[in-house]
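hey can u run this one w/ adenosine-5'-triphosphate bound, need the structure tokens asap thx
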Amino acid sequence: MSIEIAGVGKRFGDFVALDNVSVSIPSGRLTALLGPSGGGKSTLLRIIAGLERADTGRVEIEGVDATDLPPQKRNVGFVFQHYAAFKHMSVRRNVAFGLQIRKRPKAEIAARVDELLHLVHLEQFADRLPAQLSGGQRQRMALARALAVKPTVLLLDEPFGALDAKVRKELRDWLRRLHDEVEVTTVFVTHDQEEALEVADEIVVINDGRIEQIGSPDDLYDRPANDFVMRFLGPVTQLGDHLVRPHDLQISTTPTGPDDVTGTVTRITRIGFEIRIDVTTTTGQPVIVTVTRNEFLALGLDTGATVHLRIAPGSPTTAAAPAAPATAGADHDLAASSI
Ligand SMILES: Nc1ncnc2c1ncn2[C@@H]1O[C@H](COP(=O)(O)OP(=O)(O)OP(=O)(O)O)[C@@H](O)[C@H]1O
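ok here u go:
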């Protein structure tokens, strides 16, 4: 295990930002710290970097107790959302900076910088100033600079957070490929579940200063530990007492068994390649079902139709927190809005 975090606690005044957090982050993998804003992800990353001190607990990096080491002794590379480049220096000199202050020989620096610029596909921009780069190119430069000194661990705090959706997506794919080439232990913070599911080998879900679940994207998606993880990873709806994903519900115009739940279609909405069907059950529970366009056409549904619902066998479900009828609707709206 490359990074061992054991019993780490951190308060800011009365506020508990991290509550007795323990996690092992594997060597050579890409690990995402995922969770809602304010959950403690950045605080944990900053504690690993040595930019913040834990009140309790220990941090070990590659077998070395780093708890009391200053950031520069931890051999970590760090990239923030808003990367502070040296504005008056060329891309090449920005990337070379860490090697120059370590007084590496000139020829070694030149060779390493060329290698890195090639790795991040910025060779042709080597002599530009940071202001002459796009946001995505600037973040790639930041990564090259962080990698220059061959860190043991690369820490990324929402590195693509400030970029538009399309560039974000490109950089995500690029980060995955870069990581496969360099294989440096990488930890990145994100609040975007899609980003974590797509890029990470391992995901640590953090909420309210505590770890909700640790696992591979498949573990989290197929076996969510609780309804928080289930809700956080994508749209959910409720059928009876089960929280389930809307595409894991089966819908038919004829009943298929005694466990079917009967309801009436109240609304049909097309969302890209999916069709969302709003159903109200005979007990008054609002349920969302999503089907593909072809499935929808085969069903031949219209508003007002009677339908029968069931959870597809083997689908992940969690027990829905019991809610009074008055708040069930509000819960449902929240789930619906994330579709
Ligand atoms: N230096 C500080 N002083 C006081 N409170 C802080 C400090 N740093 C963080 N916090 C608080 O600790 C909590 C956790 O913050 P943190 O930045 O770790 O969350 P996060 O999960 O990374 O969220 P975000 O994605 O919004 O950055 C927040 O409520 C934040 O306001």
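The chain has two domains: 3-222, 234-338. anyway lmk if its weird
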